[in-house]
Design goal:
- By secondary structure, the protein is of the alpha+beta class.
- The protein folds into 2 domains: about 90 residues, GMP Synthetase, Chain A, domain 3 (2-Layer Sandwich); about 30 residues.
- Helix content is about 55%, strand content about 15%.
- The chain has a 3-stranded mixed β-sheet with strand order 1-2-3.
- Helix 1 packs across helix 3.
- The protein starts with 5 loop residues before the first helix and ends with a helix.
Length: about 130
């Protein structure tokens, strides 16, 4: 199976949906932040491993605790994934921190600040 085949893309999507569901509704660990998102799941072509990119909106301590809790619950998550998906092998999951949402929010704030400063500067020029 090629890495970017249709089958692999479909498996990645199904694993992503199932991981999101498990983390949102099945996992009861209080260390897992309620603002946790699974951004991407990449399953290896041999279905042995899966890289799950996790985004946590919050403080660095919340991010650290959430990733530790997910790593501690990997066995439970893998078992639930096996129940939810009918795959030949249930992949071993590696949770990787993803800062893309936080980066997007930061950039959006910076753009808003630049627009506001530009509008204020153009307002002052009109008054003069």
């Amino acid at each position: 199976m090629r890495k970017n085949s249709i089958k692999n893309t479909r498996i990645n999507g199904e694993v992503l949906k199932e991981l999101s569901r498990i983390i949102r509704s099945e996992l009861k660990d209080p260390r897992v932040s309620s603002l946790t998102s699974v951004m991407e799941a990449t399953v290896a072509p041999d279905l042995k491993t899966c890289k799950a990119y996790i985004s946590v909106l919050g403080s660095p301590e919340e991010k650290k605790q959430t990733l530790e809790a997910l790593k501690a619950a990997e066995g439970f998550i893998r078992r639930e994934l096996a129940h939810g998906l009918n795959l030949r092998n249930t992949p071993q999951i590696f949770f990787i921190e993803d800062d893309s949402i936080e980066y997007g929010v930061t950039m959006s704030h910076r753009i808003d600040e630049v627009i506001k400063a530009d509008q204020e500067a153009s307002g002052r020029e009109e008054e003069s």
